[in-house]
Amino acid sequence: MHKRSFFILSAIVVLFSCSKSSNSNTPPPLPPEDFRFTGVTVDGVSGTNNYSYQSVKVSPVIKLAFTVPVSLTSASSAISLIDQHSVSAQLQYSYASASDSNTIVVQPKSNLQNIEAYVLKVMSGLQSQRGTKLNNTITVNILTAIDSTDKFPRISDSALLDLVQKQTLKYFTDFAHPVSGMARERNTSGDVVTTGGTGFGIMAIIAAANRNFIARSSATTQIQKIVNFLHTADRFHGAFPHWLNGSTGKVVPFSTKDDGADLVETAFLMQGLLAARQYFNLATNEEKLLRSDIDSLWRAVEWSWFRKYVGNGPENVLYWHWSPNYAWDMNLQVRGWNEALMPYVLAASSPTHGVPKIVYDNGWAQNGAMKNGKTFLGYQLPLGPDYGGPLFFSHYSFLGIKPGSLKDVYADYWMQNKNHTMINYNYCVNNDKNFFGYSASCWGLTASDDNRQGYLAHSPANDDGVISPTAALSAMPYAPAESIAALKFFYYTLGDKLWKDYGFIDAFSLNDAWFANSFLAIDQGPIIVMIENYRSGLLWNLFMSCPEIKNGMKSLGFQSPYL
């Protein structure tokens, strides 16, 4: 072989050998990495199926576990903790231990807020130490715990009741409509005033005057202002609409066809006015005029008209609405059991437009069909829907009607209202739906604002986690120990969330960390009045002292030592 050709061949063999040796030392490519989330703990508690935690400390330790080691440098942009107001918490990140980089620990740099809903999100931008991106997104829901420390100094129970009555009264005095003096429907209603809520407010003003929270003369002046306005406001057969314009006195339609008389709202207004007529009994010109003007409004209500005079004559039932534009189109009969006992009592008591007992028996009592008689949570319920319905059934008409020792062929009314209250209370204590916060000191379901549905008649049969302070507080005559326990919890423990310019806010849900910013006349008024009935029986005694009421209730078959 030629020397040059041999040299080239040798070189090729050497190069081939070197190349083969080099390839054998290169590691094979790594298989694809399975980077997945495997679980979470919050303060050592493992997550549920939907990764939701309640009553979490404000300085939680959140551990997120994965299948492979995680890159901490990617955590700050991929993991967030945001509250329900879209505010992000500042976080710090670490490994669970020096030997466990598959688990990262997430902690807020400063304490979170109590009773606040937070969402922890882990985005797909999170990377493993090899740079693999997470293959899914994780959401963890966190609801922080109640701060059990007192928000206000402790005072005596009597002083606390004074404070609640005084503060809540401001809704009906400081916030009263400047022209009419009537109660606005709610704190955002502007010129819209409510007839029924004004009736409750009048009773609240009486309680305040009797306790010297306001001067008797101031109370007389405001109620006279209301009465003067009512004499000029829209009326339909003597009955007022649900809403009025507080400046003009013109009807404000509650709905399209509800633009005329509302008999139930009128009854609640008259309940308050009759209590005022009985309270302001001095021989002064001011109080004599007030009594006379109230009597004129009372005697003008044509209760019997609302038996719906059509066809062959009046029906033996009262109708809720009548409209000058739609007549009886609303077609809603007032039948029990609910909050509307008062229209039947007043209709039977009217000295000018009364109705006979058959209207009560056939219409309201449905000839006994309003009876229940079943037992719920250990308490027999004489009347109404199963579990009793919302608690305002035992409040609105009983601001004036005294239920103690009151009976007729259908029920013992003290038993009805007390047992209704205790069913509501025990339902909340049992908390079968596991709503956060329900307890022996946090209870009460009734109609109020709602964070999901705007406004809802909450009850054991219609419960979405919303507590209404008026429910437990207005039940004080029926369950004093349970109501006062709720009052103390609302004021001392939740006071920074609930206690505002006009007393307690309308409603809240600890389960959703939601607190209403509203106040409603029909919820604030019963708080003052029923606390007063618990303390002194004042409004019960005033209303039941009306000669017409005594006669009317007797004519319906009621029995009571107060008649």
Description:
The protein has 563 residues and is an alpha+beta fold. It folds into two domains: 37-144, Immunoglobulin-like, CATH 2.60.40; 157-555, Glycoside hydrolase 144 (GH144) (Glycosyltransferase). It has 16 helices and 22 strands. The protein has helices spanning 3-24, 75-78, 157-169, 195-210, 216-232, 263-279, 285-300, 341-349, 357-364, 413-430, 469-473, 480-493, 495-498, 521-535, 538-544, 547-555, and strands spanning 37-42, 45-46, 52-56, 62-66, 79-83, 91-97, 100-108, 117-122, 138-144, 192-194, 243-245, 251-252, 261-262, 321-322, 375-376, 379-380, 447-450, 454-457, 499-500, 503-504, 508-509, 514-515. A five-stranded antiparallel beta sheet has the order 2-1-4-7-6, with no helix packed on it. A four-stranded mixed beta sheet has the order 3-9-8-5. The protein has a three-stranded antiparallel beta sheet with strand order 10-11-12. A hairpin with a 4-residue loop joins strand 21 (508-509) and strand 22. Helix 4 (195-210) packs antiparallel against helix 5 (216-232), helix 5 packs parallel to helix 7 (285-300) and helix 6 runs antiparallel to helix 7. The protein is elongated, with a radius of gyration of 34 Å. The relative contact order is 0.10.
Radius of gyration: 34 Å
Tally of structural domains: 2
Globally, the shape reads elongated
Strand-residue proportion: 5-15%
Domain Glycoamylase-like: 332-547
Keywords: Signal
Protein name: Glucoamylase family protein
Pfam families: DUF3131, Glycoamylase
